[in-house]
Design a protein that fits this description.
Layout: H1 3-26, H2 33-43, H3 50-57, H4 61-73, E1 77-81, E2 89-93, H5 95-118, H6 124-139
Antiparallel strand pairs: 1-2
Helix pairs in contact: 1-5, 2-5, 3-4
Length: 157
Amino acid sequence: MGKRATFGSLLVQLARVVSRIERDEVCCGDLTFQQFETMRRVAGASKVSLSSLAAELHIDQSTASRNLVRLERDGYLSKVRDEADARAVVIELTRKGRAAISSLACDERDTFAELYDRIPADRRASIVASLETLTEALADPTVTACCTPAPKRRTAS
């Protein structure tokens, strides 16, 4: 297997393990990881709208809307009219939402601190530097997929 193929394989394995850790060890209770991320984005912004939230999370507006409906129904978020533009709705964390995000952020920090501690001390700095480089490469807006997406299948009506 070539270095590029090995890199791809390791990246897929890493994504799966991190997703499992987030799902199984961080996001407990009635929240999914995507809902946790939704709440984290709301907590970190001064004003959040449905469209900006969907764009930041790289999800469809319909998916973002379903997440918001559930989080609002469960008391984690509320929607309020924007004082500057009465037509706009702004999403805010409730007290319950702030408490949940604080608790989950601590769980996440502790979980990844334990993982960090399992890495040999003399390799930690190089791994962190490599992850920073990888994060920068993934955030590069000029990077595009190499393959054309497969056409959507038509379903029988």
